[in-house]
Amino acid sequence: MQYRNGHGWYWPLILILTFGACKTNQPGNTTATQEQVLLEMQRQDSLAMVADTLETAEAIDTTRLPEAYQAARKRVHNLIHTKLELSFDWEKQHVLGKASLELSPHFYPQNTVTLDAKGFDIHAIALLDDDESRQALGYDYDGLKLIIQLPRTYTREESIFLSIDYTAKPNEIASKGSAAITSDKGLYFINPLREDGDKPQQIWTQGETEANSKWFPTIDAPNQKTTQEMYITVEERFKTLSNGLLVYSSINEDGTRTDYWKMDLPHAPYLFMMAIGEFAVVEDTWNDITVDYYVEPEYEQYAKDIFGNTPEMISFFSEKLDYKFPWPKYSQVIVRDYVSGAMENTTASIFMDALQVNDRELLDSDWDGIIAHELFHQWFGDLVTCESWSNLPLNEAFANYSEYLWAEYKHGKDEADYENMQEMQGYLREASQKQVDLIRFYYDDKEDMFDNHSYAKGGRILHMLRNYVGDEAFFASLSQYLKMHDFTAVEVHDLRLAFENVTGEDLNWFFNQWFLNSGHPILEVSYEYQEGTLLIDVAQKQDFETTPVYKLPLYVDVWIDGKKERFSVEVNRPKQQIAIELDTEPTLVVFDGDQQLLAEINQEISRENYLLQYQHSDQFLLRYKAIEAIGDDVRETQVLETLLVAMEDPAWAIRQMAVAAFADYIGEHQQRVVEKLRSIALDDEKSLVRADAIAVLASIDADEHMAIFEEGLKNPSYAVVGASLSGYAATAATNKDEIINSLASEENINIVIPLADYFISEADPARAPWFEGKLQTLSGADLYYMLQYYGQFLMAVDDDGVHEQAVLQLEMLVLHHEQYYIRLAAFQALMMMDGYEPAETLMQKAAAEEKDPRLQQYYQSMFADDDEE
Question: DSSP secondary structure string, 322-384?
Answer without folding.
Answer: TS---SSEEEEEE-TT-SSSEE--TTEEEE-GGG---HHHHHH---HHHHHHHHHHTTBTTTE
